[in-house]
Every structure is written in structure tokens, then in C-alpha cells.
Write a sequence for this structure.
């Protein structure tokens, strides 16, 4: 696993990794291994002795879905974890994603729509996301078209997406709600996007965390990093061009 995870930035307090698709950030079941938490502990065994608020999520500042690739921040100590999580909660961390969606989006825009989680867990999210129940939480996503494609009479748009909040599956849910499902997404899709995903041989969502910017208050400096599309997503773009 380690050979697939790239360290993009490192100092004494934090790491910024380029996560490949297929890797969990932290264990969600007792027998799950080869997560980013495992990567962090294997690289810095001494950190397991620190007083972490959750021993199953050592160093986890924020999350990416298992099959979303790209930049993610990990903390090396609880003090850094608390500082960075405060920045995420106060929306001081600027995250940018690249997504490929079904449909032609002509103009930049934003969506503000609550997101709720299914009572029975993730398998119910797709059925209850738009219920706007008392358990829902506000979510805001901005998007901007980068490029348009037409593939076998299907319009597609490559988007730059900026979530202003950090809800589970937020970008995927919001874009599906707008009628522009992400290509390759196994959960939030419609029949045409499922068919096109098979046609393009893409079995994971075309969603990549491509840029992150925040102020490291411990190091007292701005950090701005970018990540290029991984090979599997770049190959899809090549097919479309």
C-alpha cells in the first residue's frame, strides 16, 4: 500500500498525502487494514502513545471517500489535530475538487441544500438524502465548468468544485440532486450515467481532491498544494477528447 500513497508535504506536525482511490482513511470495521491511519502509524510508531481523542482515527483531520482520490491532511500530534479541525469547522480551509458529470453545465453556480443520513447507515443515504428531516445538516457547494465533452451523443462537463461545508458524500449528493451525477459513481447515479460509466470502463466516481489551501498556525505559514489527476481519470479524459 505505501508505494501508492505519496507524501506531498511534511513538517514536524503534519503530513499532506495524495490518496489513491480504493484506500480507506480510517477503519470502519474491526478487520479493515491498510488505511491511512495504518500508514501514519507505520511511518511514525511513536504517535500511538499520544492522547488522541479517538484511537481508531489517529491523525485524521478530515476524510475522503474510499474511492475518491487526492489531497488529504493528517496530523502527527493531537495539538495539530485540534488546530486543523478548528480551521475546517470554521471554513478556513479551501478545498477544490475535479469532477466529471453527466450533462452540460454552462455557468458557474452554487447549491445550498440540507443533507441527511439514512437511519440504517450508508446504504440508506441515497433514499433519504433529500428528505430535509430534523436530522439534516446545511451544506453548500460551489462549482464552475472547466471543459465540455460530447461522447456518443452524451454531454459531459468537467467541473471545478468547492465544498463550503464538509458533509458526508456532499459533492456527490449535491451534483446528483442538481441532475448532474458524477460519472462512475456507484451510489448517486441515474440510468444514463450508469450506462456511460460502463461504456467508459470507470468503476469509481470521477472525483479528485485537486487543491488545498490553509494557514498552518503552528508553522505560521500558508500552505497551498495541488494534485494532478491520477492515471485512471486522466485516461477517461483522453477517451473523451
Amino acid at each position: 500500500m505505501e508505494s501508492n500513497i505519496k507524501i506531498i508535504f511534511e513538517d514536524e506536525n503534519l503530513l499532506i498525502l495524495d490518496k489513491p482511490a480504493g484506500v480507506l482513511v480510517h477503519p470502519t470495521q474491526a478487520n479493515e487494514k491498510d488505511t491511512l491511519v495504518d500508514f501514519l502509524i507505520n511511518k511514525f510508531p511513536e504517535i500511538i502513545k499520544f492522547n488522541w481523542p479517538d484511537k481508531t482515527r489517529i491523525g485524521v483531520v478530515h476524510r475522503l471517500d474510499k474511492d475518491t482520490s487526492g489531497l488529504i491532511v493528517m496530523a502527527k500530534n493531537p495539538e495539530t489535530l485540534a488546530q486543523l479541525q478548528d480551521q475546517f469547522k470554521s471554513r478556513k480551509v479551501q478545498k477544490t475538487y475535479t469532477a466529471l458529470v453527466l450533462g452540460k453545465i454552462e455557468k458557474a453556480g452554487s447549491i445550498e441544500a440540507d443533507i441527511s443520513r439514512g437511519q440504517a447507515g450508508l446504504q440508506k443515504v441515497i433514499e433519504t438524502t433529500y428528505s430535509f428531516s430534523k436530522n439534516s445538516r446545511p451544506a453548500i457547494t460551489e462549482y464552475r465548468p472547466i471543459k465540455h465533452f460530447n461522447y456518443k451523443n452524451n454531454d459531459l462537463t468537467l467541473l471545478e468544485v468547492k465544498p463550503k461545508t464538509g458533509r458526508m458524500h456532499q459533492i456527490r449528493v449535491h451534483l446528483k440532486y442538481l441532475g448532474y451525477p458524477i460519472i462512475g459513481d456507484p451510489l448517486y447515479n441515474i440510468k444514463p450515467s450508469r450506462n456511460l460509466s460502463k461504456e467508459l470502463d470507470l468503476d469509481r466516481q470521477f472525483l479528485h481532491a485537486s487543491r488545498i489551501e490553509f494557514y498552518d498556525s503552528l508553522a505560521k505559514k500558508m500552505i497551498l498544494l495541488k494534485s494532478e489527476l491520477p492515471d485512471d481519470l486522466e485516461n477517461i479524459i483522453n477517451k473523451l477528447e
User: Anything to note?
Assistant: The chain has two domains: 1-90, 94-212+225-241. The radius of gyration is 18 Å. The beta strands are 6-10, 14-19, 69-75, 94-102, 109-112, 140-151, 154-163, 207-216, 221-226.
